[in-house]
Amino acid sequence: MEDWYIWLKIVHVIGIISWMAALFYLPRLLVYHRENIDKQEFVAIVQVQEQKLYGYIAMPAMILSVLSGLALLYMLGVEVFHHGWLHLKLLCVLILLHYHFMCKKFMRELQRDPHYKSPAFFRWINEVPTICMVVIVFCVVGKFF
Fold first, then answer.
1. How many Cβ atoms from other residues are within 10 Å of residue 87's Cβ?
2. Dist CA 92 CA 100 (whole Å)
3. How far is CA 76 from CA 1, 8, 61, 117, in A?
4. What pLDDT is recorded for position 1?
5. What's phi and psi for 10, nearest 5 deg?
6. What is the mean pLDDT of each run of 10 residues along the chain (145 residues)?
7. How many structural domains are present in the chain?
8. CA nearest 72: which of 127, 2, 145?
9. Which residues are within 8 A (CB) of 36 and not within 5 positions of it... i.e. 6 or more apart?
């Protein structure tokens, strides 16, 4: 059982790294998209990048992260739920899941309305995954409470 746990943890970390990379870069593409709405050729290229990043990296990595995370929780058993750090980590994961699907909504809205939100909005929203990542790392590594 211990061997499976380690391999599952490796898969989980790989999934998380890939998912976070996508969540860090996708809003940056949305900034470029919004800042260059007058340059149709550039916007077309950025839209393809958005779609590929979301569909080929972010979505599979998110699914891998969630499934492997659930499997790890199952292997750890119910006693792990008595730790406060896990509750905070899971709250951050829920925020990241919401953020993930909001990015898809932002992509659709920008295609429908090129003036949807401001570049500054996308710059600020880009901080959400960083904040969640910091909290999650403190929770998982530190297990402070």
1. 13
2. 12
3. 11, 12, 22, 43
4. 64
5. -60, -45
6. 89 98 96 94 96 98 98 92 94 98 96 92 96 96 85
7. 1
8. 2
9. 42, 43, 46
Kindly give, in sequence order, each residue whose CB lies less than 8 Å from that of residue 66, ignoring residues fewer than 6 positions away: 93, 97
Measure the CA angle with vertex 107, ends 113 and 121; round to 5°: 80
Give the integer Cα–Cα distance in Å for 65 and 42: 32
Structure letter (DSSP) for residue 1: -
CA distance 14 to 95: 20
| Segments forming the whole domain that contains residue 123 | 2-142
- C-alpha span between 132 and 124 (Å, rounded): 14
59, 15 Cβ separation under 8 angstroms: no
Alpha helices by DSSP H, listed for the chain, are 2-35, 40-52, 59-76, 84-112, 119-125, 128-137
